[in-house]
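Box 3.1 — From sequence to structure: TetR/AcrR family transcriptional regulator
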Amino acid sequence: MMRATPEEKESLDAVKERTGGRSAKVREAVLQAARQILMEQGANALTHRNVAQLAGVNASTVYRRWPDRARLIADVFKNTAESMVRIPDSGSLSLDLLQFLQMITAMLYSAEGRKLVQGAISATSSGDDMVESAIRDVWEQRFQQAEMIFEQAVLRGEEGYKGQRKGILETLIAPVWFRVLITQEPVDEEYLVANISRILKQMP
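Predicted structure (token representation):
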């Protein structure tokens, strides 16, 4: 059987891309390949050609969807973070915050989570200003998404802590990262509940 030329493969990708599920499958394959390269080899190895080869698609397909490396790296982090840490809706603000922090803790303890963190450090230390900016934008988007926890509380008639949400989230999340990655102290439910209670009580 004759193999398709690069031009024929690109044309085939374009046709299949219009058939609904193909587009989603290509995107997932590319992001998985990019994540694997980023976590195993670092940001400098994340080229369109390397990703395309591992994903089994034409390089032009990757270029068309992600014109620059910064967008590709940002999408990898966003996709991975969203799959591992979702926004809970348990019925109360305190419980939502607890479940959110528990998911972050579980992510940081997991092998994939640790590689994600290492990849983020590698990417932001690559010297590529566009990459660094893209990673910052991802974290900012994640904080904005997390503020939905407070919006849900408002709808239930609870305090929404308007204007204080990011500060609360940073104060709750930072000790988790520090304990898991630096001091390796335990992060159990008792610790998280105590922190949530203390910090919310301190809010005016």
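Summary of the box: Residues 6-67 form a domain with the Arc Repressor Mutant, subunit A fold (CATH 1.10.10.60).
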